[in-house]
Design brief:
single chain; 282 residues; alpha+beta; eight-stranded mixed sheet; 33% helix; binds glycine
Length: 282
């Protein structure tokens, strides 16, 4: 099987994103997808999606890890999850604070019976497992918070990969919507926003409430498992999303190595490579 990887960096806001930021995001995605493809040659799909998402979390252009958005009470709370298509194990952290890479904490949870932790429990687990205190706030996000402009920045990061053994995996991480109520749960650490089986792997971005209402990633994967082609599974699921004007985008790979993407509104930014050619959209 030819290894393949696709990553996303959330949505551009057409009204508020400058051309400079667009170009910087596209360049960052190209660099990260190419690095990730090199990594995938020597690692499994599940190791690779964690690697890619941790690089995206470390890049302050995206709303995950460093550069996450600030909630209504002035704090940053992040959510991340991963799913291994082979073992069907899902692990995630919801509303974790002051760690560098939420996806690495979720990865650590894969070895435990209790695999989805929220709030204080997630923070305590991280500290007990040597994740040091780390403040992911950058001055630009504080400025946006003070100007109450974060709602224009809908973002999440994610990666899906197929390795040379044909194993599939998905990982997703987010700083949330910005200005949300403390306690609000993002889709990114649920199977609606991140899901994988032996048949298909999907990572979503967009408005978490819409993604949960549409059960977006789970429905796409289930439809593929039930025999639908990947493109048809996307089209049917996004048609259902459109019935309530849901705002979302998703990336996917199926077990044949087919890559697909769709977004409900302009414009999601994503990149993929098979090691021969790299494509960056939008
Ligand atoms: N999709 C990210 C969020 O709504 O939290």
């Amino acid at each position: 099987m030819q290894e393949k990887v696709i990553i996303h960096g959330g949505f551009f806001s057409e009204s508020s994103t400058t051309n400079e930021v667009k170009v910087a995001k596209q360049k960052a995605l190209k660099d990260i997808v190419e690095k990730t493809h090199e990594y995938l040659k020597m690692h499994t799909a599940i190791e690779t999606v964690v690697y890619a998402v941790s690089l995206l979390e470390d890049c302050d252009l995206f709303n995950a890890g460093l550069g996450s958005q600030i909630q209504s009470d002035g704090k940053i709370r992040m959510s991340a999850s991963l799913m291994d298509g082979v073992s069907k194990k899902f692990a995630g952290v919801i509303n974790i604070e002051n760690v560098k890479n939420p996806i690495r904490v979720a990865e650590k949870l894969m070895a435990y019976d209790d695999r989805v932790l929220g709030g204080e429990g997630a923070i305590n687990f991280a500290r007990a497992n040597n994740f040091q205190f780390y403040n992911p706030e950058i001055p630009q996000r504080r400025l946006e918070y003070e100007q109450k402009s974060a709602s224009k920045r809908i973002g999440t990061v994610g990666c899906v990969a197929i390795d040379k053994e044909g194993r599939l995996a998905a990982a997703t991480s987010t700083g949330g919507k910005g200005f949300e109520m403390p306690g609000r749960v993002s889709d990114s650490a649920t199977p609606a926003g991140n899901y994988a089986t032996n048949d298909c792997a999907v990572s979503c971005t967009g408005v978490g409430e819409d993604i949960v209402s549409a059960a977006l990633a789970t429905k796409i994967v289930t439809r593929v498992s039930d025999g639908m082609m990947l493109q048809q599974a996307f089209e049917k699921t996004f048609k259902e999303l459109a019935e309530f004007d849901g705002f979302a985008g998703a990336i996917a790979i199926d077990k044949k190595g087919t890559i697909y993407h769709l977004d409900s509104h302009p414009s999601m930014v994503y990149a993929y490579t098979d090691g021969i050619e790299t494509f960056v959209f939008k």
